[in-house]
Each structure stands twice: as C-alpha cells, then as structure tokens.
C-alpha cells in the first residue's frame, strides 16, 4: 500500500465568498450565516424596539473573531494584527475594549 503526500503550495486557499458559481462549497459563506443570524434576531425581537443593531452585531462578531485569530497565532499580536489587516496598536485597543488580555 502506497501513501501519497498531499501536494504543498505556498498559495492560500481562495476566500469563501460564494462569488464563484463554478466551485462547490461545503460550508455556508460567512455573509449568509450573519444574514440568517440577524434575520432570526429581528424576528425574535418583533414588537420590541431595537437600537444600535450595528454595534451589537459588531460586538458579537468581533470578540470571537479576535479570540480565534489569537488562538490560531498562539497569542502573537503582530501575526494576529497582520492576519486581521489591522495595526498592532489598533488590535491592542480593540482587545482591551473587549476585555481580552494578551
């Protein structure tokens, strides 16, 4: 029995935007997950006044994003900032706002 190693490449995988109809995606694009979650929230809040929805969504998405990226980079703030497309100082400020100590 022979085992073949998976080919290695230095190119990152394509973004999961759902914009390429020729590619079959095994997961739901992030934008559809956010859309479904916000729709469910709005339906659940029927009859109640909703304020600051933008801030609420950003808080709900940003904290777990930062936590996952920090886990992925093993707590390396420089790598995490680069991966997120932020400056290190901006990342530190956002982490502090969310009460995430690193």
TrEMBL record:
Family: Belongs to the transcriptional regulatory Fis family.
Gene Ontology molecular function: sequence-specific DNA binding
Chain positions covered by the region annotation Disordered: 1-30
Ranges in a coiled coil: none
Pfam families on file: HTH_8 (PF02954)
Keyword annotations: DNA-binding
Protein name: Putative Fis-like DNA-binding protein
DNA binding HTH domain mapped to chain residues: 59-97
SUPFAM superfamilies to which the protein is assigned, alphabetical: Homeodomain-like
Gene Ontology terms: biological process: regulation of DNA-templated transcription
